[in-house]
Amino acid sequence: MSAGPMWAPSPERVQATRMTAFMRAASARHGLRLDDYAGLYDWSIDRREDFWRFVWDWCGVRGTRGDAVLDDGDRMPGSRWFRGARLNFAENLLRRRDDGDALVFRGEDQVSVRWSHREMYDEVSRVARALRAAGVHSGDRVAAFMPNMPESVIAMLATASIGAIWSSCSPDFGVRGVIDRFGQIAPKVLFAVDGYWYNGNHYDCLDKLRSIMAELPTVERLVMTGYTQPQPSLDGLPRALMWESFAGAHAAGEIEYVRLPFDHPLYIMFSSGTTGVPKCIVHGAGGTLLQHLKEHQLHSDVRPDDRVYYFTTCSWMMWNWLVSALASEATLLLYDGSPFHPGPGVVFEYADAERMTLFGTSAKYIESVAKSGLVPRERYSLASVRTMLSTGSPLAPESFDFVYQQIKADLCLSSISGGTDIISCFALGSPILPVWRGELQCRGLGMAVEIWDEESRVICGERGELVCVHSFPSMPLGFWNDPGGAKYRAAYFERYPGVWCHGDYAQLTEHGGLIIYGRSDAVLNPGGVRIGTAEIYRQVEQIDEVLESLVVAQEWENDVRIVLFVRLRDGLTLDNVLATRIRIRIRENTTPRHVPAKILQVSEIPRTKSGKIVELAVREIVHGRPVKNVEALANPQALADFRDRIELKS
Fold it and tell me: Are 114 and 101 in contact (CB under 8 A)?
């Protein structure tokens, strides 16, 4: 444990935060004395109806709130939030119509455009009118096979404005991956792109689209965006027309927002696992909006005219999270492509050029920048960046060191954790709290997060299951095509009835923060000792020769043994000397039980489309079992390196 925090906000900075302003206003309304995060958190849990009502009011949600905040609050699932409320999600994101930047976009070094709030509003109005003319009504599904670009944001807002349901995935998906998702939800309109760039290479999507359209008979209109070529050929694409023809047939004007109930479906998201066909997770407009307003304005200190960046694709919930920053009157800095093309400094250059205030990325990106040898503080100012967020996997303590030593010293570095399941976070940052090495700063306001041991007892300072014991507004409405809710209940409430079990192996710290050790279902258990995979990754990836790694438990002699796979720098081969160094590093910094029985070299580590390593898929391969959903992987060919390894036979 560190002797002290790595960073702490100055008193002046604390006083200037949105969270401090929120505490003052809540104290005044409710006759309280909220003067620190612990007190605010306790109030948000103990008086959750008061808290969420005040979030609505203080954040200025556009709509009618009604009097009822929470019905059946003791039921989970089954609670109902803001029963009498009416709102429209898009109306809350399209607050501005001025000439300030709304969307700034870079597609690697190929495309650079910007849209003002006025231009974005006008284009949303055109697309909304075009959707209505195409017969899209409230509750219909609109899907997108698109990169993280302005047209994706505009199409989503137009969809939400009329009460239709949005779902998206990125164009790097294969045909089966798209059909496995969109085939379940029967979209009426599909927005798509002709191709995309990644790492300087052009990838054409037109052949894939022809196959996709052949298997999506419900699509009545295919709306094409010319991204890599202005006028792509539409040959073989039925019911297709270009974006300009679709939207351009309608004049810009006032948007006719449809105000709908708080729990009206907004998004259908998809699980990214490899254990079967993706689950279709339905999220409501009100819960998504309220939760994102809270996370942006309070936890991330987003203010009007801030410039918010998150590296994401349209397949990951962080895209939905990013877009919601428009509700806080911020500018979105969009990026599509490789964050290392043409070099490792491309995003830092973007940050300086566009005065980025929030730099959102992944733990893997930070680790990769460190491995690249780039020292950002020597080449980039980053004067505008106040906050850096990291998610996707646990941020190693050494990555905290790298950020503060080599990127920027005066920065609120917040590792955050949640998921597609809740379209938000259970643990995140706070601009009024210090940053402790290796820790997520705090549990989210209004999120009754606890760590339980195997006897369902609350523990602190020990490792256990991350659970949430009270309902919250951004819980899923359910799963698509799950009328009785059996699949939904089985996914989160089967282990602890009435309690959300998130599947993370974690620890609550003495500072009120959390440490995430990995997924519970990937925890290693040799000799009955539970070991989080992140503990091993942290040690292995400090070795310079190792670029990344993956660890699983192999069933062996009525127990399990730890098997570590490593990807090395180009041109290197794993030998006994390096394997011994890896084992010594793990033994000296963890315990003898963490030391792998086998260390094997692979050329690639398999990952999902959102960049998460897939321990469960590799575990299945190692045991000769099939992986059910390889389309969830960004690089399914990587699995071949793990199959039938002779080294694992003895």
Answer: yes
